[in-house]
Specification:
Elements lengths: L3 E11 L5 E13 H6 L7 E3 L5 E3 L11 H12 L6 E6 L2 E2 L7 E7 L5 E9 L5 E6 L2 E2 L4 E6 L13 E8 L3 E10 L2 E14 L2 H6 L1 H24 L22 H21 L1
Parallel strand pairs: 3-4
Antiparallel strand pairs: 1-2, 1-14, 2-5, 4-6, 5-7, 7-8, 8-9, 10-11, 11-12, 12-13, 13-14
Length: 275
């Protein structure tokens, strides 16, 4: 498989404590990690580790130093049964140097092009990341796995419950669905579904509006729907641990630092009210 463009829709639905749902058209890259190493994308509009209209930086994918392939191989030694033959990542590229990726999915195939294991790299809006190795099981419709939630993502969901991930894809289609359950009841579900398009300068230009909107509007959409939930009287769960713990080092804007300060103050006030 060569690197491709993924175009489709993203869906979110909350069941409790208040129902809330939305969907948006989305555009991402499905990058063959081998092509990231030498930048052989076949288009002048997309670069690896260099500024461009679209770019993918090794530092944006997986924590630590080194190339994405080196970092993935190191994780593979600890979590997979053996070395994979081909690895690719579903991610949003930087647009004019900016991107926020709530989640990156890594898919590893064996020599028979069968998915052998996967990895979810989840980021929150506080600059933290967490890796969920996915010990997948083959089903008639694709692959599935379950694991406990241990990472703070949304202030409107506690760090509890368990995730169930379902993956399905073929040469032209890809679907990933994530369901969060608490005590056997559905709390939240999200899915991304769509088609795979060969990557070229022409296809990049064709899907530029989706790719640009997806990258530049991701953070604002998160805050917009947070406002909707507040208006529905959903009580937030503030972080009770220092935000610096486990936080990846990265450059931060004045807006980012100001927002982090406000959330810290709200968290402390919330704890004071409980005592």
């Amino acid at each position: 498989m060569k690197s491709q463009i993924f175009t489709g829709n993203i869906y979110h639905r909350r069941e409790r404590p208040a129902k809330h749902s939305f969907s948006y058209p989305t555009g991402c890259l499905l990058c063959d990690i081998a092509e990231l190493g030498d930048g052989r994308f076949g288009t002048f509009l997309l670069s690896n580790n260099h500024w461009n209209l679209f770019s993918v930086y090794d530092s944006d994918l997986l924590p630590g130093a080194g190339s994405v392939l080196e970092k993935f191989r190191a994780l593979e030694k600890h979590h997979a049964k053996g070395a994979s033959s081909r690895i690719y990542v579903l991610t949003m590229p930087r647009v004019l140097g900016y991107v926020f990726n709530p989640v990156n999915f890594y898919f590893a195939e064996d020599q028979s092009s069968e998915l052998c294991w996967a990895l979810a790299e989840v980021s929150n809006t506080f600059g933290e990341k967490h890796l969920y190795p996915l010990e997948i099981t083959r089903t008639t419709e694709g692959w599935t796995c379950s694991f406990p939630k241990v990472f703070y993502v949304s202030p409107f969901l506690p760090v509890s419950g368990s995730y169930s991930v379902s993956i399905s894809y073929d040469e032209s289609y890809l679907s990933v669905q994530v369901d969060l359950q608490e005590n056997g009841e559905s709390e939240f579900s999200a899915a991304i579904r769509g088609r795979r398009v060969p990557l070229s300068s022409l296809s990049l230009l064709q899907f530029t509006p989706r790719l640009v909107c997806n990258a530049l509007l991701a953070m604002s959409r998160i805050h917009l729907h947070a406002l909707f939930l507040i208006l529905k009287n959903v009580t937030p769960f503030f972080k009770s641990v220092p935000l610096e713990e486990g936080e990846a080092k990265r450059s931060r804007s004045l807006w980012y630092e100001g927002r982090r300060y406000v959330v810290c103050r709200l968290a402390r006030k919330s704890e004071d009210l409980k005592t």
